[in-house]
Specification:
By secondary structure, the chain is mostly helical. It has 9 helices and no strands. It is globular and about 55 Å long.
Length: 203
């Protein structure tokens, strides 16, 4: 009886720990999402919104000054209209935790190249991790390019309220995706199947 009660107590303790970790993860994701959306109202651009929210909420080992790397990505890189700045900010944020800092070392150059390739293409692999960001935004909004996401506001209505709300929503979504990947186990998240990709890799 005592052993059974102890087992039940241990199981209850473990379940509570899992529940607490899950709640903490969900709170972190929501905090990043909401801060990123709020940042847009303060004057940060789309890329800055996402990266600032992550830098302020999670210890990624980067100084606050790292935010300056995101500035040029706003408006699809200096208003050029390419990849949405919120996506770029999410990629930078996830890269701060899961990105590479050095290549695999091997005296055999060919083996070193193979190992570097496995880091990117393997399962788990970093490309599988980062590939989720644009694919999730495309699933939600139909596009990943700033010029396509903002088509109806490009003729003299760029600074209108509807455009601001649209961008703020995309920022929140991109920040949420980034936060999920930051909180995820790299082995698990990096084993996800590829979505749309230029090499047409299918799992």
């Amino acid at each position: 009886m005592a052993a059974s009660a102890t087992m039940r107590g241990n199981l209850s303790f473990q379940l509570n720990r899992v529940k607490k970790k899950t709640m903490e993860k969900e709170q972190t994701i929501e905090a990043i999402r909401e801060r990123a959306k709020g940042n847009f109202s303060k004057g940060y651009n789309c890329a800055e919104c996402v990266l600032e929210a992550v830098l302020a909420t999670v210890d990624v080992g980067l100084p606050p000054e790292s935010l300056k790397m995101a500035t040029g990505f706003g408006g699809g890189i200096g208003l050029f209209g390419d990849t949405c700045g919120a996506i770029s900010g999410a990629v930078m944020a996830v890269g701060a935790i899961h990105g590479r800092t050095r290549l695999p070392q091997n005296e055999d150059r060919k083996e070193a190249m193979k190992a570097a390739g496995r880091q990117l293409y393997g399962r788990p692999g970093l490309y599988r991790l980062f590939n989720q960001i644009p694919n999730r935004i495309q699933e939600q909004y139909g596009h990943t390019l700033c010029r396509d996401l903002t088509t109806k506001w490009r003729d003299g209505q760029w600074l209108c309220r509807d455009h601001a709300i649209n961008c703020r929503n995309i920022i929140g979504e991109a920040a949420g995706v980034a936060a999920e990947l930051l909180c995820a186990d790299q082995e698990t998240a990096g084993a996800a199947p590829f979505g749309q990709n230029v090499e047409n890799i299918r799992d």
